[in-house]
Q: What sequence folds into this?
C-alpha cells in the first residue's frame, strides 16, 4: 500500500473508531436509563437519549460534536433524540468571548442547538485555579443538563487525558480510587438534585487518532494558549514527559491503560468490601459507627469504613496519611472524651462506644442566645441562633399541657443552661437535675449546649431535648385551651 493510501486508510479507521466509541456510549446511557424502568411497558428496549455535549471549541470537543451531529442524522432519532452543545466561558482567557462566537458558528453549520454559560472562577481559590475551573465547569454543565432534561453530559476526554490524570494522582500519593483516574461513566450531581450521567466516549482512544480525524474532516477548532504553558503540571506531563516515555517504550499508552483498568477493578472490589463492612458497623438509628464493630476489623479496613462513612455524609475525608492517626486518637481515648476532630464544619467525636458526626459548635455569645419573645398564638417560632424552632401543638381532649392564655400573657424567655436547673418530667418521680436527665436521655455534653431552656416569667417550664415540667401544666378540667411544647432542630441531633 502506498504512503498516501495508508494515510487515507488511517483517517478512515480513525473516523470509524471514534464513531463506534460514541455510539457505544450512547447505547450504554440508554441501557442504564431503562434499568430503572424495568416494570414499565415499552415497545423498545433502548430509549432515545438526550445529550449535552461539553463544547470548548478545541480539537477534541470539535471531533466529538461533529461525530455526534453526524450520528444524530444517521440514527434519525432512533437512538438519539436531541443534542445540545454547551460552551462554558470561564473568563480566564482574553480570547474566551471570541471562542464562544466561533463555537456558536460551528454549531450553526452543524444544525446543533448551542448555549453559552458564563461562570466565575476565582484565581485565588484555595483548591487551585485548574481545580476551581473544573468544578465550576461541571457544576454549570450539570445545571444545564437538568434544565434541558438531558440524560447525559458528554466530554471529549481521551486516553492521553486519562494518563495525565493518572500520573498527577500518582505523584500526589493517591490511593486506589485516585489512581483509577477518569471513569468512562459516572454520576454527576450537585446539591440535592437527581444525578445526570457523565460520559467520556473517547477515553480509550489516543490523541493521535482524534488528530487524524480532525485533519481528515478539515475541522475548525480553537487553540487554547494555556495548553503550552508548562507551569501547569498537566501541560508539563503532556509536552515534556510523554515524548520521553514514547521514546523509551513503544505502546506504553496501551500498557498503562491496562494497568489503570486493573487498578480500577481492584478499587471497585475494595469499595464493595468497604460498603459491606460499613453496613456491619453502622448504627442506622443515629448514623453512628460502632467502635466495638470497628475494632474487629484490621486497621486498613477500619480506615476504609470511616472514609466510606464520611463520604456518604458528604464530608471530604482526611488524607490517607492522616486518617490512621485520627483513628488512633479516637480508639485510645476515654469513652467520655472531649476529643473532637473537625472536618469542614463537622466534628468527629467518640461518645461511649460510638463514633458520631455532629455540627461543629463555636463559642456563641450568651447575648445572642438569650432571647425574650412574645407568643401570639403561632404554630411555631423559629430561633436561628439556636438552630431550631419551638412548636406549640394544641392538646387533644384530656391531654395535659400549658395554659394558652398564660403563655400569651406571660413573659417568655429562651435561655442557655447555667447549671443547677431542675425539671419534673413524670408524675411518680421527683424533680431531677438537668445534667442527670441529659445523661438518662443519652444526650452527649457537646449536644446539650445546642438545647435551649424556656422560662415563663421566672419559672423553668421546658427544656429542649427533654420535655416539659408537669408541675406547671394547666388543670384539664378548668382550662380547655392548652398546648404542649416541642423543640424541633433545623438539623437532627447527631445527623
A:
Amino acid at each position: 500500500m502506498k504512503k498516501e493510501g495508508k494515510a487515507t486508510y488511517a483517517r478512515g479507521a480513525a473516523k470509524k473508531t471514534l464513531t463506534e466509541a460514541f455510539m457505544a456510549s450512547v447505547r450504554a446511557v440508554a441501557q442504564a436509563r431503562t434499568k430503572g424502568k424495568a416494570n414499565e411497558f415499552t415497545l423498545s428496549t433502548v430509549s432515545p437519549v438526550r445529550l449535552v455535549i461539553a463544547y470548548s471549541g478545541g480539537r477534541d470537543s470539535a471531533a466529538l460534536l461533529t461525530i455526534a451531529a453526524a450520528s444524530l442524522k444517521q440514527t434519525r432519532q432512533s437512538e438519539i433524540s436531541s443534542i445540545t452543545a454547551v460552551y462554558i466561558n470561564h473568563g480566564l482567557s482574553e480570547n474566551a468571548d471570541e471562542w464562544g462566537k466561533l463555537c456558536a458558528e460551528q454549531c450553526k453549520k452543524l444544525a446543533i442547538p448551542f448555549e453559552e454559560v458564563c461562570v466565575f472562577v476565582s484565581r485565588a481559590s484555595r483548591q487551585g485555579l485548574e481545580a476551581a475551573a473544573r468544578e465550576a465547569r461541571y457544576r454549570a454543565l450539570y445545571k444545564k443538563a437538568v434544565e434541558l432534561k438531558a440524560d447525559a453530559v458528554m466530554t471529549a476526554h481521551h486516553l492521553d487525558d486519562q494518563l495525565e490524570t493518572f500520573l498527577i494522582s500518582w505523584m500526589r500519593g493517591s490511593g486506589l480510587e485516585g489512581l483509577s483516574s477518569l471513569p468512562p461513566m459516572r454520576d454527576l450531581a450537585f446539591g440535592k438534585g437527581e444525578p445526570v450521567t457523565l460520559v467520556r466516549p473517547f477515553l480509550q482512544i489516543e490523541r493521535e487518532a482524534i488528530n487524524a480525524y480532525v485533519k481528515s474532516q478539515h475541522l475548525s477548532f480553537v487553540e487554547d494558549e494555556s495548553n503550552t504553558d508548562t507551569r501547569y503540571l498537566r501541560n508539563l506531563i503532556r509536552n515534556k514527559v510523554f515524548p520521553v516515555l514514547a521514546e523509551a517504550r513503544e505502546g506504553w499508552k496501551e500498557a498503562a491503560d491496562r494497568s489503570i483498568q486493573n487498578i480500577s477493578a481492584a478499587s471497585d472490589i475494595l469499595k464493595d468490601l468497604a460498603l459491606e463492612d460499613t453496613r456491619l458497623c453502622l448504627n442506622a438509628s443515629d448514623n453512628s459507627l460502632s467502635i466495638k464493630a470497628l475494632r474487629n476489623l484490621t486497621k486498613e479496613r477500619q480506615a476504609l469504613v470511616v472514609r466510606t462513612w464520611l463520604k456518604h455524609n458528604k464530608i471530604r475525608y482526611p488524607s490517607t496519611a492522616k486518617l490512621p492517626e485520627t483513628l488512633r486518637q479516637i480508639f485510645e481515648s476515654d469513652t467520655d472524651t472531649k476529643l473532637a476532630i473537625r472536618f469542614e464544619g463537622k466534628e468527629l467525636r467518640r461518645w461511649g462506644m460510638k463514633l458520631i458526626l455532629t455540627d461543629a459548635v463555636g463559642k456563641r455569645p450568651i447575648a445572642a442566645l438569650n432571647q425574650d419573645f412574645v407568643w401570639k398564638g403561632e404554630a411555631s417560632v423559629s430561633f436561628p441562633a439556636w438552630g431550631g424552632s419551638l412548636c406549640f401543638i394544641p392538646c387533644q381532649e384530656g391531654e395535659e399541657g400549658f395554659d394558652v392564655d398564660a403563655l400569651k400573657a406571660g413573659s417568655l424567655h429562651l435561655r442557655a443552661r447555667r447549671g443547677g436547673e431542675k425539671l419534673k418530667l413524670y408524675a411518680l418521680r421527683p424533680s431531677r437535675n438537668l445534667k442527670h436527665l441529659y445523661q438518662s436521655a443519652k444526650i452527649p455534653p457537646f449536644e446539650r449546649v445546642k438545647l435551649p431552656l424556656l422560662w415563663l416569667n421566672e419559672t423553668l417550664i421546658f427544656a429542649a431535648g427533654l420535655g416539659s415540667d408537669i408541675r406547671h401544666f394547666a388543670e384539664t378540667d378548668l382550662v380547655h385551651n392548652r398546648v404542649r411544647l416541642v423543640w424541633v432542630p433545623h438539623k437532627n441531633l447527631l445527623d
In short: The domain at 283-359 is CATH 1.20.59.20 (Chorismate Mutase Domain, subunit A).
